[in-house]
Amino acid sequence: MTPRGKQSNIVECKFSKNLAVLAPVRFKGYTGLSEAAVDATVEVVPLSWARDANIVVGQSHFIKTVEDIAEIMATTVPGAKFGLAFNEASGPCLVRTEGNDPALIEDARRCALATGAGHSFYLVLGPGCYPINVLDRIKSCQEVCRIFCATANPLQILVVRTGQGAGIVGVVDGFSPKGVEDDDGRNDRKAMLRRFGYKFA
Fold this sequence. Notes:
By secondary structure, the protein is an alpha+beta fold. The protein has helices at residues 65-76, 102-115, 131-139, 183-195; strands at residues 25-31, 34-47, 54-60, 82-87, 95-99, 120-125, 144-151, 155-161, 166-173. A hairpin with a 7-residue loop joins β4 (82-87) and β5 (95-99).
């Protein structure tokens, strides 16, 4: 909500040819009771991590997140391999890491640095551990504000950058639909869930 009942400008952005970076745009921003132009760019940042692994991308508000999510992993799926990185957004502004697998920790660290989004976290789950196993516990973590995605699909993060820092405004998780399921597709979906052991009847 803008001060004194003012409405912020609506800015139309157009993708550049390579679909990697949006042209710089100028927003009308507000600091206290004054208003000033804010330069911002929107980038499409692809993330990559180990094959057969999943990633959870979220937003938190406190450095305690690092240890708390690591403890959630250790107690929810004992023995699961994972790497975690958290972008500290004040003070020394470091990428904080935890985990029990050096390669997955490195994957998470690279994702965190690629977006540079303050207070975002990147949890890479090793093979055999899936978001469905841990997501409820992570959502209930006291510091976690939101989850952007939990996926093994190709992933692009939409990042806004300003003179202050960067933030995640959305994700592109996988691909667009190619149609609507028919009876065969519905049967395949139900059979897959039972093959995975998530349904019994």
